[in-house]
Amino acid sequence: MEKMKKPDFLGEINKEILEELTKRGRARNVAGLVGEVKELAEVTQICGLPFAGYLGKIEIPRPSGIKDEVAVAFEQDTPYKAAQGELDVLREFAPGSRLLITGKIQTLKDFETGKYLVFILADYVAASPKAEFQNDVAITGEIVFKPTHRETPRGKRISDIFIKVQKELAPGNCFIPCICWQETADEVAGWEQGTKVRLLGRYQSREYDKEIAKYYTDGKEAYRETERRTAYELSVQLIEKMEAGNEK
């Protein structure tokens, strides 16, 4: 007797979220977030690029309770589009306020520090105290490097990929870091550079120790100097290859 395939309810839900976010494939880069403000400041530049607006961080809890820290930027007039009038942004969006945000995921390199900023460039921002937390990002693009497959110390299989998307604040493209897990990681590991994909992910932050220097005594390693850093990436929930003729 043929074994019945177990229904993939979560996969079907993620598929529908992907379709809704991308407007049935018409949008190539879209984020829908609801989170609470951790910090927010008025800025005149981002990573050296002129930018008249605001840059800050919101926190969005996972089902496990762990909070992801999401970097968000928006231009000066963006909040007024939602408010349709005068608004004291720093007062209305004070720490602890819950915001509804839509926009696009981007990366920029800070050439002074050498670090990359992975952030949501918002096209809509509004206070929404009763909205449920949300953390969905959908992008369509191509894999720009050969996927890197590895295993964590706890035995979880991972594939790291970068997806090329269009830059919004400068000419050219930027590369979005994404991480795939378990069976999905195994499948993606066999894909090639240039593969065109569409995916749904969660903007994720995680802390790690970056080795800065090694120190030796009598020719032997004595200790290592490390720095605590935070990595920002998309944790992939669903990824699919684009069919030929359906890549635009």
What does this structure look like?
The structure is a single chain. The protein contains 4 helices and 11 strands, in the order αβββααββββββαββ. It is mostly beta strands. It folds into 2 domains: 117 residues, OB fold (Dihydrolipoamide Acetyltransferase, E2P) (Beta Barrel), CATH 2.40.50.140; 102 residues, OB fold (Dihydrolipoamide Acetyltransferase, E2P) (Beta Barrel), CATH 2.40.50. Strands 1, 2, 3, 4, 5, 6, 7, 8, 9, 10 and 11 form an 11-stranded mixed beta sheet that branches. A hairpin with a 5-residue loop joins strand 2 and strand 3. The longest helix has 13 residues. The protein is globular and about 65 Å long.
Concise account of the structure shown:
With 248 residues, the chain is mainly beta. The chain is built from 4 helices and 11 strands; from the N terminus they run H-E-E-E-H-H-E-E-E-E-E-E-H-E-E. A hairpin with a 2-residue loop joins strand 1 (29-46) and strand 2 (49-61).
Strand-helix topology:
Layout: H1 9-21, E1 29-46, E2 49-61, E3 67-75, H2 78-83, H3 89-92, E4 98-109, E5 116-127, E6 134-143, E7 148-151, E8 157-166, E9 173-181, H4 182-188, E10 196-217, E11 220-241
Parallel strand pairs: 3-5, 9-11
Antiparallel strand pairs: 1-2, 1-4, 1-6, 2-3, 4-5, 6-8, 6-10, 7-8, 8-9, 10-11
